[in-house]
Amino acid sequence: MSEKIPYSQITPKRLYMSRRELLAGIPLALASSQAFAGTKLEGVKKSPYTVDEKITPYEITSKYNNYYEFGTSKDQPAKLAQKFKTSPWMVSVEGEVAKKTKYSIDDIMKLAPLEERVYRHRCVEAWSIVVPWIGYSLSEIIKRAEPGPKAKYVAFETYYNLEQMPESRFSGLQLPYVEGLRMDEAMHPLALLCVGMYGESLPNQDGAPVRLIVPWKYGYKSIKSIVKIKLVEKQPPCTWNLMQPAEYGFYSNVNPDVDHPRWSQGTERRLGDLQKRKTLMFNGYGNEVASLYAGMNLRKNY
User: Fold this and answer.
1) What is the C-alpha to C-alpha distance for residues 60 and 58, in angstroms, rounded to an integer?
2) Pairing of the two strands 192-197 and 211-213
3) Are the beta carbons of 167 and 88 closer than 8 angstroms?
4) Which class is 41-293 in CATH?
């Protein structure tokens, strides 16, 4: 990929593969006004932050999604997010920082070297996947903002537009979707600012063009389609915690010893093989992140 061509102007694979549409006169400029999901990402390095496990097939992870803005059924987002416009796209970094900044998706793509990280991903509904995500540590974008002494938490906000997301009116959620991390969690190298998966840019239904991946927490903490990153002094609100505080806590660490009120969290099934397996504390990332919660009651701080 030429360094002279902005990422957002590269024709997506789903467009250039459609020969009939191109011959019918579809302008190439459409690529810069529509989602560019499926663009091959060049220069991606393998990361040491990876697990040696069987990867869940793309055909499964790209068609089985939690993205309530595009429908509450797992198969709806893949169908209803195809026309979601992710270019132009801006992400603001603001709050308790010295350098408030707005980044385009092209800026984000060049902010730090892209890495492929194969992560386990555990959903609260007791299913799991293993995905080769592409991005870099969230800390890269936070450090550049120069956090001030009052920055204790990082709040995230997703894109929301009822015209593009008409199904969201049936979601039952207070939108836009919001999430948050404690500062030390956000600065941990495992927390990933993600722009791709399986060697390509993110599909719309998987959070294009930029999302968060926090592999030791349940999947709903990994907010999709981010437009705002705000450093704040007090614990920020989180969508599912607002909706059901008895079921979804702020921390949302994978903890097999704390059951969801309506089902056990002690076991899970990996999509693609459906074999029941024991759920690991912190989703198997305990050696890396357990020290963040030393002395905390992880039943109370769920």
Assistant:
1) 5
2) antiparallel
3) no
4) alpha beta
Report d(CA 197, CA 40) in Å as an integer: 10
0.85 exceeded by pTM: yes
Query: Counting beta carbons within 10 angstroms of the beta carbon of residue 110, is it exposed (0 to 12), middle (13 to 18) or buried (19 or more)?
Result: middle
Q: Is the pLDDT of residue 25 over 70?
A: no
Do 118 and 129 form a contact (C-beta atoms < 8 A)? no
Residues forming a β-bridge with 133: 117, 197
Domain ranges for the chain: 41-293
Q: Over the stretch 124-141, which tens digit does the pLDDT of each residue have?
A: 999 999 999 999 999 999
Q: Which of 89, 107, 110 is nearest to 33 (CA)?
A: 89
CA separation for the pair 172, 179 (Å, rounded): 17
**What are 251's two structure tokens?**
């921390």
Predicted confidence (pLDDT) per residue in 202-248, tens digit = 999 999 999 999 999 999 999 999 999 999 999 999 999 999 999 99
